[in-house]
């Protein structure tokens, strides 16, 4: 019993390391920890905001229709680059689902993955998500190019990126919803 009292932290650490090494347990643990540490995304100060250089970006929706990003110029847009194999991406999907349910008629959502549409559709069906899924046919416009998943951009009607978040976040937070409500009200 004295051994357990003295070594409980080491035993816990070794147990956690073992869990992180086993592939079947690693991903759920990573998702869980990402959900715990996710905070509301920060708003970029007006002086530091980048502007979309152009809207010449072609996407393909889940029905294999060609989507021109330029058709969404002058609208509020949320673009999320993600993948079904990415634990931080998976961790923030429930928040995006809630946000999309409440704002889909006011904001244009683009969930962009380089995976096959069928792979994403199966993931969405398994998790009961109803998010609009896209695949890139051409390169994203500057400054939305990057390789880190997840990366999310919130773009105002004037093309300014008011949020640029790399990593998971709590997109369903009260403070972020207030930010969206303010953007919607600015007509």
From TrEMBL:
Record SUPFAM superfamilies: Thioredoxin-like (SSF52833)
Domain Thioredoxin: 34-185
Transmembrane segments: none
One Pfam family from the record: AhpC-TSA
Entry-linked InterPro entries: AhpC/TSA, Thioredoxin-like_sf, Thioredoxin_domain, Thioredoxin_ResA/DsbE_sf
PANTHER family in alphabetical order: PROTEIN DIPZ, THIOL:DISULFIDE INTERCHANGE PROTEIN DSBE
Protein name (database record): TlpA family protein disulfide reductase
Species name: Christiangramia antarctica
